Structure formats: C-alpha cells, structure tokens
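New to this. Please check this record:
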Amino acid sequence: MKRTIYILILLAAVSCTDFKAFNPYEETLNVLTVKSEWTMEEGSREGFKVLVEDMNTGAGYAAASDSLGTAVFDLPNGLYRVSMTGKLGEYMFNGATDKVAVSNADRDVTLDLALSKAGAIVIKEIYCGGCKKLPQEGDYQADQYVILHNNDYDVQYLDSLCFGTLSPYNSNSTNPWTVKDPQTGVLTYPDFLPIIQAVWKFPGDGDDFPLQPGEDAVVCLRGAIDHGAQFPLSVNLDVPGYFVCYNSTYFTNTAYHPAPGVNISEDRYLDVVIKTGKANAYTMSLSSPAIVIFKAKGGTIEDFVRVADNITPVPGSIVDNVVKVPFDWVMDAVEVFDGRSTTNAKRLPSDVDAGYVTLTDVFTGRSLMRKVDEQLSQSSGYEVLADTNNSSEDFYETERQSLHE
C-alpha cells in the first residue's frame, strides 16, 4: 500500500436494506447518515461500499452509495464502527471511524476518506496466534511468521525494507495516540505511525534480494527452526531462502529466539535498526498485531533514528519508546482485531488500512491470509492478491497455517 494524497468525499443519500419490517427494536430505530465532502471535479461515487458494525454485538449492516454518495442506515441504539471503500480506476478510497454513538436520535457522521494506490510488496499472510503443543500439554507461540508477496509486474527488491508493529500491541488496549473529536466523533491520529519495540530491516545493498512477480518471502519472527518436528500442529521454518528476525545481542531469550537452523543462511538475518523497548524477546501480539512494512525516503533508516525528535516515549510509559515512521514511507499495513474482544479499536488510520481482519482465537493454528484476485492473476500470468487498503475486504482467516505440512 502506498499513501499518496488525501481526498474528502461527500457521501450523499442511498438507503440500505430497511430493517424496520423485521427488527425487534423498531421503536428505537434511528437514522445514521454517513457523509463527507468531495473535492474531485470528475468521477462517480456510485457503488462505494459502506459498512456499519455494532461494536458490542458484531452485527453488520451494508449499503452501496449512489453517484452523489450518501449512505443512510436505520439502526437500533448502539456503538458503531463505520467504514467506506471504493475504487475509481487504479485508485482506492478508504475511510473509517470507531465509536459512533447512536442513541434515541438521528445522527450524521463525516468520514475523511483518503486516496491511495496499491502497493508493489504486500503482506500475504500473518501467523501470530500460535498452536497447541499436542501430543504434549500446553500452548506454543515461538513459531510466528509473516509472508510478503510481490504483487507487481516488475521485480521488487527486499533490500532495506523495514518491518515493525504498532503501539499499542493489542487492538483492545487503550490507544494513547488517538484523540476523539467531541463534536464529530471522528478519531484523530498522529501524523506518524508509532512503531514499538524494534525496527527490523532486510539486509542488502539494493539488488541482493530480488522478489519476482508473484513470488513470496517468508519472514520468521522468532525461531527459524523446524517447530513441527516437536509439535506437529506447528510449522517447519528451517527452510532455505527464509528470512529471520534474529539478533542475540538485543534479544537474548533463546526460548523465543533459538539459533536459526542449518538451512537459514546468515545473510538472511534481518538487522535490528533500533531497539526501543526492554523485552528480551521480540514482542508481537499473539491476538491482534498491527503490522507495517516500509522503506525510508530521503535518507537511510539509520540516519532517521539518530535524530532525537524521531523517537518518542509511549504516553504514560517509562519503559517503551516508539519510532515515528512517516505515513508516506508505508508500503503495506494490516490491522488485526482480537475475535474474543468487544473493545477492539483501530490503530491504523483509514488511508493506511481502512478495515481490519479478525483472528478468532489464539493457540489454534489459525492464520490470516490475503485473498487472491483470480481475474487479475489469470490475465497477469502470476498470482495477484487483493489490495484495496482495507483488510476487511482483502483478508480472511484460515483454519491452519499455509506452511503447515
């Protein structure tokens, strides 16, 4: 995903399904009108998808905007998450906001929607939740991995690509970085992404690690070993060509960071650009990480983190700092929600990821996978993945890891 410019879109009126005919809360139905402003001189907003989700019950409502762009919903009292996704040509439009309160009155909500283009390198799979130790007792979590994918028709290079996760670690934690406008209810985000614990960087001088169109790169976040040899529900990550987050100086906990297996060459160890936390093992949420891949612009990432103003403490914390990564460095980002929680809240703004993908539970071997665009894949001759910059549209949950044998 590449953020380019902001555009505000006016969503003027189209009705969704009328729930009054069968909704048991008929006497408390309220009208929620989703709207914004449109600054483009040309282009229809017809067919843009507007979703409203009850944050407490998970009930969902959908509507498609008309050419002027209004979406109107008849809703019972509740606290809602509102999002919108649309496409004009090669550009995607996304916007979202959380905690829209609807209570015994009609309500308008205004979304700031951003214009973005699909990225060349995207996140294909996130396996973060671990599995059972069967046939032994207990849970296992030292086998996390992420798969990256070249979604472009040109060769892309992993050299100097950076990886990190957002503060707060979990989607149901209090987010110290966002502020809610008391009048509009819209969340305001900082003008940077707060990358916590560490920034990892792929090695290479610019052309050492090519990724062909449709090709994948596996990144082991903890142990690059054959986890499946001891725990059959896990995976083998000791495979030639895999990359690993391994640095025994910064992360000394060998239970989570054992020495990589014999099939992992040292030139595929990711570098720690900076460590900003105190943990002895790299920390990524089991249930709900927000993952970002990015490349520095206008200089190196090493020079960037040497500037004091680019590092800041987590508000209220005396332990962790974050790196303030600019939005326009982002190549792709994915928001994960905890399926066991009703208090999830967005950490990524809508122009980075307008939606989220839910991980139902931890220690189940479940994984999160990006959908394949079958039509584009057929015409392109290589695997092309969906990339609308809205994880609610692009991702789904699988029963087991794709690398499970």
